[in-house]
């Protein structure tokens, strides 16, 4: 008996995040515009639900954590070596997401040739909204993603700017790793990424391009990460 | 009702792999010996079970895929900000594993400052054995890991050479990401890594140091990855 796809953050097994899939974002960080897609993994323990009582993003003390608003694709039908042609039949829905990133740790990792997993993997670093059924999004290339920090618009970009479209992303990813039901592909962020600090309020939304109403919107409060972990105390 | 920990590869949600945790292995690849632990993520879809009818490692065509035999730690009790002092109470067992690595893709990623996820994440890139109960391993620092390719001994190293011991690894990892039941920590590989080619037979085992019998051993056949994925055809 399979679980409802709506509860994917509770049992889905992987988050595949595409890097630099919007040219303007690649450029704003000083990176080349990619000629092929690439991805990194985030742990599913990094989900922070917009439906929580107090949706919260936790920032490790002293870290420069950036917001990256993204369209999440939720896989329904599993597959491997999926062709771009049949890719959309594997999609069970969409969601609004933030790919929170400790930019300082990512910059260090990039310089050292080390993995991005820590920079991208802290608890609460993948804020995610409710499943949006495919019926509500007939064309995922005709959406606009926006994000505000303390009411100020920071990101506002159309998914039509994606360098690699969803069918190509599914083809690419599934040529490396089998996609399972409940897996999530984060499709990259438009330009305008920037810092989130404790005390900030982050609002974001997704709408059909040109429409006034959002298909989904969510709000998170930013706090300093509590606890006395090795990372937090600077012991490592 | 919780599932039996023995079936962790079927439902566990993350694989955290520690890099360069044996000094001799760090050196053999020309890397500095780390002063702090670091990790990367592998998708759980990369598990290949030693209990399968035909245990197989699939090598993408033309790729230089290396074996890294490792001790896997299986988490039973979940936790966050776990102290080294209490860490061992979270361990539900161990397993023998191989952290298969497309060294060519990893070298490219390191040079380009890009994530390691593809190099480490192909289907079948995490061969894994049966759960070994903690009662069979009173001291995980007193084990020897070995690996043969076509009968020739390639890796043979004691877990006492780990730079960061299991309690420290659990403390470090859980200070970043919550550990859940069924999660796996791969604890790094001793020296002697090398290429696996289609047609090779890979044997590996784990034993108490000085003992003649293995606690667990497993065998995998290496084949070329079938299918017509984007990666396999060189289209990307
Ligand atoms: Mg990585
Ligand atoms: Mg992103
Ligand atoms: Mg390894």
UniProtKB/TrEMBL annotation, chains A, B:
**One Gene Ontology term of the molecular function aspect:** acetylpyruvate hydrolase activity
InterPro entries associated with the record: Fumarylacetoacetase-like_C, Fumarylacetoacetase_C_sf
Lineage, top-rank taxon, reads Eukaryota
Q: Key word Metal-binding present in the record?
A: yes
Could you state one GO biological process linked to this protein?
carboxylic acid metabolic process
Ranges in a coiled coil: none
Q: Which UniProt keywords apply?
A: Metal-binding
Translocase in keyword set: no
PANTHER family in UniProt: ACYLPYRUVASE, ACYLPYRUVASE FAHD1, MITOCHONDRIAL
Family note: Belongs to the FAH family.
Under what name is this protein listed? Fumarylacetoacetase-like C-terminal domain-containing protein
Organism, per UniProt? Chytriomyces confervae
